[in-house]
User: Which sequence fits this backbone?
């Protein structure tokens, strides 16, 4: 019995080897396609994440910068924290809103590999710079606490508390 199987195998060796090598090639191609597809999805996810969160961060940074610029132009004479001044909370609110946007990026960006996208790398670099000792207005823990307090986490969304 084994002799007949061995003879049939030897007689059909080109066909058998084609079937085996074809199956191996298909499996290698499947594996390669899966790796490529997962990498592409991660990059797309990073791009979508940056597209979604960069706009609000830039808007809050622009508002804060505008307020600081107007205060600097007037040598901070408009900065008045007296109880009767209705605008006394404007500057702290803008800082809190900016830090809240950063906190949203931190919370939602835990599962996204931002380093796979060029703007994501720059965003990470910017956030690292903000947390460095040379750029801090208050310490990092206070920045994060203020950012978290400013947010209202509901249903996986992070709306900002109103002024």
Assistant:
């Amino acid at each position: 019995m084994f002799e007949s199987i061995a003879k049939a195998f030897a007689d059909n060796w080109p066909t058998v080897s084609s079937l085996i090598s074809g199956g191996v090639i298909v499996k290698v191609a499947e594996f390669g396609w899966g790796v490529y597809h997962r990498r592409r999805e991660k990059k797309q996810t990073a791009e979508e994440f940056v597209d979604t969160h960069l706009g609000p961060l830039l808007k809050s940074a622009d508002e804060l910068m505008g307020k600081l610029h107007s205060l600097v132009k007037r040598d901070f004479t408009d900065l008045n924290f007296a109880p009767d001044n209705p605008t006394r909370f404007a500057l702290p609110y803008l800082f809190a809103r900016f830090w809240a946007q950063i906190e949203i990026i931190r919370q939602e960006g835990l599962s996204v590999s931002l380093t796979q996208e060029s703007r994501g790398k720059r965003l990470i670099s910017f956030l690292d710079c903000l947390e460095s000792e040379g750029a801090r207005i208050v310490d990092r823990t206070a920045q994060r606490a203020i950012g978290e307090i400013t947010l209202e986490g509901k249903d996986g969304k992070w709306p900002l508390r109103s002024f």
In short: Helices lie at 2-11, 13-73, 90-108, 118-131, 140-150. The radius of gyration is 29 Å. The chain has five helices and no strands.
